[in-house]
Amino acid sequence: MNKETSWENSNQSYPGYFILLGMADRPRLEMLLFALVLTCYLMALLGNSTIIVVSRLDPSLHTPMYFFLSNLSLVDICFTTSLGPHILVNLWRKSKTISYSACVAQLYLSLSVGCTECVLLVVMAYDRYAAICHPLHYTTTMSYSRCITMAAASWISGFSHSLIHSVMVIRLPLCGPNQIDHFFCELPAILKLVCVDTSINEVLVLVGSALFLLVPVSLIMVSYGCIAAAVMKIRSSEGRKRAFNTCSSHLMVVWIFYGTSIFSYLLPRSSSFHDEVKLTSLFYAFVTTTLNPLIYTLRNKEVHKALQRLMKK
309 φ, ψ to 5°? Predict the structure, then answer.
């Protein structure tokens, strides 16, 4: 029996849902993960919503830096919300199912906002480069219309890239057990259920990972290399400290987000590290989105003052 005939027979009985295995063989670990995911999800919603509201209401924060930071917070809210509620339900209950349509929607949304964040972090690095390396031309370089264009390009590129992968996955025939060995519907995990050759899809995943992970990291490192050279030319120690504080928060977010993403998507997947990959995916989906608002606000005096003014009002 050839592969095509096998698929035709399995297609008739293939259920319209998937089973997300997660850590079903370790119920105690699942309860710990439930508490961690719930805490991170609520903190991510609160922290990122606060940044958006404060940046919107306080006139002193109506700058390109906080405009992009608000976009990043919105991306993080969308990212955690596309995954969080269903993961929490599955971690709590014994029946860990997800419908086919919900799985495709989860794949598309999470991949869209994840790719959007990759591009947006590059845009934020360019903003810091323009502010520090070319301060006299900053207002014209980062005009309001250009900021809108750059933010829109980040969102459009992320959602367009995800659409390509999602459409290609929908067209593939599925067979075998309807079990996804993950916490959510992630592209590499779904491709394992396909009963035809997926070499084209795997090549596209590698190309997309390089475009949205390796290229952005390289551009960010180049921009911060230029920033470091410009900062060293600043004579006053106070000026160097201010410039360093402005950029260090963004660099911390970059290393946490890209480090976990590269580990999940680009490193070779072996059975011995499979659980680590799944837990890393949870980390970049929830812990990084929780840390982002904390990293950007804890060391930011402008946000502190804006919050104080809003609290007084």
Answer: -65, -40
Q: Is 198 helix (H, G, I), strand (E, B) or coil?
A: coil
The pLDDT, as a whole number, for residue 12 is 43
Q: Which residues of 7-23 are buried (b: 16+ CB within 10 A; e: fewer)?
A: beeeeeebeeebbbbbb
Tell me what pLDDT residue 268 has: 59
Q: Are 79 and 260 in contact (CB under 8 A)?
A: no
Quick: pLDDT tens for 223-267: 888 888 887 777 777 767 776 766 777 777 888 888 777 776 666
- pTM of this prediction? 0.86
Phi, psi angle pair for 173, to nearest 5° = -80, 140
Residue 193 tokens read as: 């259920």
| Cβ neighbours for 161, distance < 8 A, ≥ 6 positions apart | 111, 112, 115, 208, 211, 212
Cβ–Cβ contacts within 10 Å for residue 122, how many? 21
How far lies 182's CA from each of 128, 243, 289, in Å?
37, 41, 20
Cα(187)–Cα(210) distance, rounded to whole angstroms?
Answer: 15
Q: Which residues of the chain have pLDDT under 70?
A: 1-15, 176, 239, 243, 245-246, 264-274, 298-299
Residue 4 region by backbone torsions, left for phi larger than 0, else alpha for psi between -120 and 50, else beta: alpha
